[in-house]
Amino acid sequence: MPLGYNNPRLAEAARTPAMVRAITSRPALGSFPSQDYAALLESGILKAAPKGLEQVFTATTGSDANETAYKAACIWKGTQERGGKDFTDAEMSSVMDNQAPGAKKYSIVSFKKGFHGRLFGSLSTTRSKAIHKLDVPAFDWPAAPFPQLKYPLEEQEVENRIEEDRCLKETAKIIDTAEQPVAAIVIEPIQSEGGDNHATPYFFQRLRALTEEKGVLMIVDEVQTGVGATGKMWAHEHWNLTSPADMVTFSKKAQAAGFYFSRADLRPDKPYRQFNTWMGDPARAILFNAIYDEIEKGDLINNTAKIGSFLYSGVEALAAKYLELIRNLRGKDRGTFIAWDCSKRDKVIALAREKGVIIGGCGEAVIRLRPMLIFQKHHGRSAMLGKVVPNY
């Protein structure tokens, strides 16, 4: 929920003739996009695009956004290997039996403890909890190690640099030795479901350089981190990359979904290669336009950065008092994307809800904060004054 419940600007957008038409006569965008769909994207979703990524492929959910990004990466790699030539008869016939050479044996590298969705392709890159994956067939795709850093980050720079270099070296080895050639890597700016695990800009900068060196695509999964929650529109903006990632996926706070890209060779080269009936939803694009307008009008991203500093300081003060309940506090200077380890996580979350404070868990024993972009200091003062934890 980016703007809270019953937001008047969203209610206004919902009552427009354009929204009525989008809901009652939803277009099958894969075949019959409405005449104004391009203009609708340009006035909202594309206005919010990450720097350097001026095109978008719209989807329905975060999992769908990631899967279509994976498909784009594999199609890109296959097209490269054919040198842009048309398909052979052998490819056309073998693919109907899910066999080579038509069905490629490419892989998507993800990172341990990462989460990218629950559909078949995205689930093969999800590695946060076993319950997500049990009994479901999966692609045999490799997992690289995500840095397990020590917090606070600024006090553990030497140890963390060693750990990040180790993970970069192992990722390079995985790309070089993968039995199934790697088409792309996918990574979250902050591993969300896996425990709100952070890495430094150094790690991501060198990871980007590594993908360029190895000739694989870099997909940044911003489904959870995107649209302002980290104090920037997109969390990867904290990295200061010299060249943008190849694709950035989004959903959740956008209330829409898809992936941003720039490369012309990631556009489908033939009909039906990237295709489904809906391929997004104009109704959701209309809502995103209103969301983006409210973010801009209310300066909500800067607000989130300031509120994040306020919340972090408050939790930091509580951590000094309650060592068992608040350990490894993380998320400094990352807006409201704040989390900590808690030995009695589930009990604390339950108590907080009894007191009217909705907080969530992730990883094995992590409490995370996910307030809306409109969150203000007075919303958090009772918790900061210690009216939740001490009663525990």
UniProtKB/TrEMBL annotation:
Its cofactor is pyridoxal 5'-phosphate. GO terms for cellular component: mitochondrion. Keywords: Aminotransferase, Pyridoxal phosphate, Transferase. CDD domains: OAT_like. The keyword Transferase applies. It catalyses: 4-aminobutanoate + 2-oxoglutarate = succinate semialdehyde + L-glutamate. SUPFAM superfamilies: PLP-dependent transferases. It comes from the Eukaryota. Its EC number is 2.6.1.19. One of its GO terms (biological process) is gamma-aminobutyric acid catabolic process. GO terms for molecular function: 4-aminobutyrate:2-oxoglutarate transaminase activity; pyridoxal phosphate binding. Belongs to the class-III pyridoxal-phosphate-dependent aminotransferase family. This is 4-aminobutyrate aminotransferase. It comes from Tolypocladium ophioglossoides (strain CBS 100239).
